[in-house]
Design brief:
- This protein is an alpha/beta fold.
- It has one domain: Aldolase class I (TIM Barrel, Alpha-Beta Barrel).
- It has 15 helices and twelve strands.
- The chain has an eight-stranded parallel beta sheet with strand order 4-11-10-9-8-7-6-5.
- Helix 2 runs antiparallel to helix 3, helix 3 crosses helix 14 and helix 6 runs parallel beside helix 15.
- The longest helix is centred in the last third of the chain and has 21 residues.
- The protein starts with a helix and ends with a strand.
- The structure holds flavin mononucleotide.
- Flavin mononucleotide (FMN) binds next to helix 4 and helix 14.
Length: 394
């Protein structure tokens, strides 16, 4: 049956509405007709809709997704609103200094790049772009076990110190072999992630598996949207059940073993209670990363800024780092005041990469660093050592 004129117009309107540019415009009303240039974005949040518009939906969903109803993703942000500052006046802050020494490396600021998988889904340059961005900002990139590029090649992509994030698997032998490779390639710190003993149900991804072909592996090629989805059989979602990782068999004895094999500091990432922080200290962890994985594993995991205080208390002299939901300089300052040594950011760096490649990642980090400096200046804190608990009120 031939289409009517009305049906043609409706179909064309639907096509326009589904285009990336139209999606961006819905989210970025102030830029009107066009995609914004990098310089036009005034904060980190504004990179997300540009990234969303530029990437195939399944790639964006992989970055954005949390578990179940994504309550923890939202709560990571909401929890910052419960903390205000107690700013001090009449302090000379003209010699503002955000730098710090962390595990033997001098960084420009206490904002690091969290380990995130598959940067090739955000930009064709993948982790090479991230490594160069980190070097430009003089901060640490933690490279994920599930990176798009080989760890040795990423190590060589810039001369600035980098850390390696370790997921145990697929077996112990392979785990230790990768650890040795990372140390051999010059990674300065091993970050063992312990909060994923089972694969979590990221429902956005399950839906995408049905709707479009999900990128196979996390290769450096940016996955292409299917040209004609109706022509192909839908891909079935994986069976809804427990998908255990090697991690579900491991306990602190594994940590002891790993620690013995490493000639660099070993941090433990994914700690959310004082009890586990205390155990990490007893087992000789060189650092603790308080993290709920950006709300991607346990739904109703607490916001990290809520539990940071108890973890810092239990950690004693062991440095505590924190991530999950950090988007503003003031978020970072709150964590530093509670006792964190530094903060890691995950999605914002991927939004930067997805929106503008390496330059976007640099800009995201620079924006957060500048916001932190401004917040410190307005609170009468000229350097990191002057920041303490008296700065915040719950
Ligand atoms: C797309 C994506 C991939 C991630 N991949 C890893 C990973 O491979 N290893 C890991 O330890 N954490 C991974 N994480 C968690 C981050 O290290 C970090 O804990 C989290 O992103 C912080 O929250 P934020 O994204 O709100 O900043 C990933 C997070 C995202 C968003």
């Amino acid at each position: 049956m031939p289409f009517t004129r009305r049906q043609y117009i409706q179909a064309f309107a639907a096509y326009l509405a589904a285009s990336p540019l139209a999606r961006a415009q819905r989210d970025l009303p102030y830029t009107g007709e066009r995609m914004p240039s990098l310089e036009e974005l005034v904060n980190v949040f504004e990179f997300e809709p540009v990234c969303k518009a530029r990437l195939p939906q399944q790639n964006y969903d992989f970055i954005a997704g949390g578990v179940d109803n994504e309550w923890s993703v939202r709560h990571n942000r909401e929890a910052f609103d419960k903390i205000t500052f107690r700013p001090r006046m009449m302090v000379d802050t003209s010699g503002m200094d955000l730098s710090l020494d962390l595990f033997g490396s001098k960084l420009s600021c206490p904002i690091l790049i969290a380990p995130t998988a598959g940067h090739g889904l955000a930009t064709s340059e993948g982790e090479f772009a991230t490594a160069r961005a980190a070097a430009k900002v003089q901060t640490v990139m933690a490279l994920s076990t599930n990176a798009s590029q080989q760890l040795e090649k990423v190590a060589a992509a810039s001369s600035f110190p980098k850390w390696y994030q370790l997921y145990p698997g697929p077996d112990l032998e392979g785990t230790f072999e990768r650890t040795y490779r990372a140390m051999g390639a010059g990674f300065k710190v091993i970050v063992l992630t312990v909060d994923g003993p089972y694969g979590s149900h990221r429902e956005r991804l399950s839906r995408d598996r049905i709707r479009v072909a999900v990128p196979s592996g996390l290769g450096a090629r940016t996955a292409k949207r299917r040209q004609r989805p109706d022509d192909e059989e839908p891909v079935k979602p994986p069976p809804y059940g427990l998908s255990p990782a090697l991690m579900n068999r491991l306990d602190w004895r594994f940590f002891d073993d790993l620690k013995k094999r490493c000639n660099v500091p070993v941090l433990i990432k994914g700690i959310l209670t004082a009890e586990d922080a205390e155990l990490a200290r007893q087992h000789g962890a060189d650092g603790i990363v308080c993290s709920n994985h950006g709300g991607r594993y346990l739904e109703y995991a607490p916001a990290t800024i809520e539990v940071l205080s108890e973890i810092v208390g239990a950690a004693g002299n062991v440095p505590v780092l924190v991530d999950s939901g950090f988007r503003r300089g003031t978020d970072v300052l709150k964590a530093l005041a509670i006792g964190a040594k530094a903060v890691l950011v995950g999605r914002p760096v991927l939004w930067g990469l997805g929106a503008y490649g390496e330059a976007g990642a640099v800009r995201v980090l620079e924006l957060m660093r500048t916001e932190l400096a401004l917040a410190m200046g307005l609170c009468g804190k000229p350097n990191l050592t002057s920041i303490n608990r008296t700065l915040v009120k719950f």
